[in-house]
Fold TIGR03086 family metal-binding protein.
Amino acid sequence: MSTTPVTAFAGVIDTIAHLVEAVEEEQWSAPTPCTEWNVQQLVDHLVAVQHRFAVVMGAQPPLPALDPAPEALKKTFPTSAAALVAAFEGPGALERTVRAPIGEVPGAVALHLQTIEHLVHGWDLARSIGQKALFDEATVERETEFARGLAAQMPSGPGAPFAPSRTVPEDAPALDRLAALFGRDLTE
């Protein structure tokens, strides 16, 4: 079976869904490497992004309202993730131009952006709850290559969407290299 960018993204989403399901009650308030959010806020952010991008990509029907409570997030994450994957699978979704936070981009670029966002935040979540994020290595490598060009174009300083990139050894795992590219401190 060949892996398409959308099926690779679905695999990333599935891995994160398992991580969300593994969050223990006392871990929802734990800090994350994404310093402005605790675990609950991080998962809520991912669900909100999934909702927003599913709509941008043409999801039908409209998605239900969001509830940031931990137990609701455990139920909502897989539902909103499935809606986003379905939207990316829609006819012409990867070819049409859509509005992303970085501006107008082809749907294929939006898919890269969402895959990278989910990989990095999946890394954040896994570290926060003491789990391992078992993403497909080929997907992580491919998105790291795409992200290198993206990171070079991102604004820096106060208000920037990511902290400055950090240096890591070239032999570091691909997921750690990707996280460091978007400002994550691997030593914490």
Observations:
- Strands lie at 97-100, 103-106.
- The domain at 5-137 is CATH 1.20.120.450 (Four Helix Bundle (Hemerythrin (Met), subunit A)).
- The first strand starts at residue 97 and ends at 100.
